[in-house]
Amino acid sequence: MKVVFTAMPFAIAAFFVALGGGLCARLAYDTGAEWIRIAGLIAFAVGFVCFAWGLKEFRSPSRWRPRPEWLREYEARARR
Fold first, then answer.
1. Which residue has the higher pLDDT, 38 or 71?
2. HEC profile for the chain?
3. Dihedral (C-alpha) 40, 42, 48, 51: value to the nearest 10 degrees?
4. Alpha-carbon distance 50 to 39, whole Å?
5. Reported pTM
6. Which end of the chain is more exposed for a tag (fewer CB within 10 A), N or C?
7. From CA 44, how far away is CA 14, in angstroms rounded?
8. Mind listing the pLDDT tens digit for each residue in 42-70?
9. C-alpha span between 35 and 26 (Å, rounded)
10. Closest by alpha carbon to 51, among 8, 2, 5, 3?
């Protein structure tokens, strides 16, 4: 389950970066519509925010995901 929570933000980020890149590169070029370019840039930015979220989760998990018991014991011993 830990792998799912660690990989999920990166998968979401890859989707948004690909979506944003596709909107910016192909549709905006074909149609010339400014709103498509803006939507693509927003999706691209959301992808990078998700990458940052993934890095944060990888380095220090959120409070909603409980830490394993052995890790809590190890951290408690390290503090003493």
1. 38
2. CHHHHHHHHHHHHHHHHHHHHHHHHHHHHHHCCHHHHHHHHHHHHHHHHHHHHHHHHHHCCCCCCCCCHHHHHHHHHHHC
3. -100
4. 16
5. 0.60
6. C
7. 9
8. 888 888 888 888 888 777 766 656 667 77
9. 13
10. 8
Question: How many residues appear in the chain?
Answer: 80
Residue reference for tokens 């992808």: 47
The token pair at 47 is: 């992808």
| Per-residue confidence (pLDDT) for residue 10, from 0 to 100 | 85
Residue type, 38: I
Round to whole Å and give the CA distance between 55 and 45: 15
